[in-house]
Request: fold
Amino acid sequence: MPTLGLPRPFFQNLAAANSFFSTPASLISNITYEPDSLDSHQNLLFPLLQYRRLTRRFPTHITLISHAFKQRRFTEIHRAAIHWPLERFSFLGLDPPKEVTDPDELRAGEEERGWGLWCRDWYGAGEQLSAKKKARDPWGVQGEEGVEGLVKRERWGVLETGVVELVTWKNEQLFEGQTPWIWEEENDEAGNAG
Reply:
């Protein structure tokens, strides 16, 4: 079941207005949006949890679509931070036209406020990225309890222990716990071998 992790209903409406960017009609009913993510790390992780809630399994492959200038951030930091295998991850990027945003300014901004911050704070737990996240939540999407509240309210259903630990990880350094998508991959390989 393909899902399109759109961060707000606005973007789902935008996709609909553009005929879902050539998505086959048979798949359009599978498109959903993920309303809770407040940063690029959550833009990768939360749709993964939404997919599992809807299908009762994790996807076998993720294709992430974003601005091209964010490719290194998503591929080298966010994907690695959630322990998603590189061979099961694709990135499609498109930057705004140079008439809208100067490509040099995009790259410089990413180095300073994107990659530059995330490479030191893999989960957005530090002061700067936490402040950015809080500023992006004027409607209290994540509530007073933040991500922990979403987990308690079973926003994505009942999560495995390793997933709860990953979602609520507050350390700036790499999470070292187990994630079920790695276990599922190993289990699939063992099942296919027999």
Observations:
- The radius of gyration is 17 Å.
- The first helix runs from residue 9 to 17.
- Residues 105 and 111 are 10 Å apart (CA to CA).
- The chain is about 45% helix and 5% strand.
